[in-house]
Design goal:
By secondary structure, this protein is an alpha+beta fold. It has 6 helices and 18 strands.
Length: 313
């Protein structure tokens, strides 16, 4: 099964840590069954997804305990030429047709398995986002949101690209309109590879995370975790430390970025009085390049794709 990996897909040994403690539910929520509460939360997600410009057509399942739901999405899009720029094409998105029904999908597909109602509550309130709850360093890690497949269905790279869209955009409440807000801190992050990580946005081609490394701690402090199949861009916003590479050591401080290409060593050490923090951008999905094709070959194929894609239709 392909997962939203972080640094390296060859051997990820860090174990996901428990999610933050959950506040007690409201009085009216306590009187509901977990299935009824989950259904109400999922209905709210589905309602907001109807106006999400990032929604794409798909059918997938959601499982919590013994309860199943099916989400079916049909994207609505309308192209138009604005009077101020008649030579350009703009698009209106939505309202999409987003159907939430009880029960497992009628046809085999992929699904999210949520470990408990407490995790769904955390996601619903925005205390933890679904991308963070789903991050795994190793397939055996127990996390809040698992991605699984029904019998008779096989997850491939194309399907996984749709999974990332749903993971990043379905499990959100539109409290800021179409602008999606993620809160990040050490308290609502997941511990992996010696860092505290929060998923800011996860798509197949690019995954963006906030990271925090406590003073004296090291990220990728294991020779099996030193390199990645895809490039990593570290943007330092807080603290001080070093980046150990094949060529030597680089000082890290706010205002510095470091682009580490695929198959290059990158060990980060936090050496200041405060945590070393910043934004990590991963270009692509490690699992696509772990068993054959290189990222450089993918870039060449991607260039050919852009040469033939009908952007001007």
């Amino acid at each position: 099964m392909m997962k939203p990996f972080l640094f390296c897909a060859v051997s990820m040994m860090a174990v996901a840590q428990p999610l933050p403690a959950l506040a007690q539910p409201a009085e009216e929520t306590r009187s509901m069954s977990h299935a009824e509460e989950a259904h109400a939360i999922l209905e709210a997600f589905a309602e907001d997804y109807r106006s999400d410009p990032m929604a794409i057509s798909d059918t997938f399942g959601i499982k919590l305990g013994d309860d199943w739901w099916t989400i079916a999405v049909e994207r609505a899009e309308e192209a138009y030429h604005p009077e101020t720029s008649p030579h350009l094409t703009f698009h209106r998105f939505g309202p999409h047709q987003v159907t939430l029904t009880r029960g497992a999908p009628a046809e085999p597909t992929w699904y999210f398995e949520i470990s408990g109602i407490d995790v769904l509550r955390l996601i619903s309130t925005g205390e933890v986002n679904a991308g963070t709850a789903a991050m795994q360093s190793f397939g055996s890690d127990q996390v809040g949101v698992e991605t699984r497949t029904m019998d008779g269905f096989e997850m491939d790279s194309g399907v996984q690209s749709r999974y990332y869209v749903a993971l990043s955009h379905f499990f959100l409440r539109g409290t800021h309109g179409t602008t999606e807000v993620t809160r990040f801190s050490r308290d609502n992050a997941l511990q992996t590879h010696g860092i505290q990580a929060t998923a800011l946005h996860m798509l197949k081609a690019v995954r963006i995370l906030h990271f925090s490394i406590a003073t004296g701690e090291v990220a990728n402090d294991d020779e099996r975790l030193e390199f990645s199949q895809v490039p990593n861009l570290f943007i330092i916003t807080h603290g001080r430390g070093t980046l150990e590479t094949d060529e030597g050591t680089i000082a890290l401080e706010p205002g510095v970025s470091a682009f580490v290409p695929h198959y290059a060593k990158h060990v980060l050490r936090s050496e200041g009085d405060a945590p070393l923090e910043g934004v990590l951008i991963l270009y692509g999905d490690n699992s696509d390049f772990a068993f054959g094709t290189s990222f450089a070959t993918y870039l060449e194929a991607q260039a050919e794709f852009h040469g033939s894609y009908p952007f001007r239709d």
